[in-house]
């Protein structure tokens, strides 16, 4: 009995411990959720039609692609039959994906957001996981140390895609002054435009042109990625921009848009390959000499005060005693018949008196002369 009891008790305890153990791990995350995976399909292409997106036939197969998760685990794969790189069953999370440089002078970009990718050094890792792009089978391999372009992608459950392109679109500019066939650096300053970003220029002493470079004072070629690219022209005093033209590497003319404030642009998609070059030719003219405008001195004309006009005296009403018979009037010395010489204003009467006095004087003088003669 004791043996049976002991056996039962031991069995019961074992079951209880087993149940207790299950209860203890019940709150943990289910294995299916903890092991969520996704297939990451990567398209790597040369932007042969420089439009910033993948076009059929542009696939690029430079070798191997590497991916590193947040925990530091490394993965690698190659191109499949369709040209894509397939990382099958990657655990969900954020990854750094590394691309072998197609050309040391090219620039890689993530199509999502047109992100310009930086170049970093990848270490040698001997315990990386190789994923067969065609079958998904896994094995161990070693990464190769060296420089690679890198971008970030988030892998979630299901299937994710990543598109990365490479481009080498570059640009130069030359400046000419009136009547000169030799380019000059002295008559204008030149910068370049990639979308909204202003790019530095480098003066190439070999042929007189300006080259778009990655940093001021440097000589490393800058590669353009935005839809619009161009130049910013700032003439020195005494010059103005007469014209700006542009050609591709084959000498074919490109359409130039005057965007104002000295900015002249072309459409990057008008170029013909991923390594094409746009050359801008800037022709200057002498600035017109401004003619000074003389400001007329205002003439102040004094305002004359008008002389008041004298108001005429009111006309006296006619004297009711004034005779209305022709030939009669009120003279200056009285009233009477003056044989038409009398006047109502008295002025003619004075004249008559003066004439009479003169006559008397002449008469007296004549009489005196006669007596002396006698």
UniProtKB/TrEMBL annotation:
Stretches for region Disordered: 284-342
Ranges of Low complexity composition bias in the record: 285-327
Keywords: Membrane, Signal, Transmembrane, Transmembrane helix
Signal sequence region: 1-33
Record's keyword annotation contains Protein transport: no
Transmembrane portions of the chain: 350-369
S-adenosyl-L-methionine among keywords: no
Residue ranges that the Swiss-Prot or TrEMBL entry lists as coiled coil: none
SUPFAM superfamilies: Hypothetical protein PA1324
Name recorded for this polypeptide: Gram-positive cocci surface proteins LPxTG domain-containing protein
Originating species: Pseudoclavibacter endophyticus
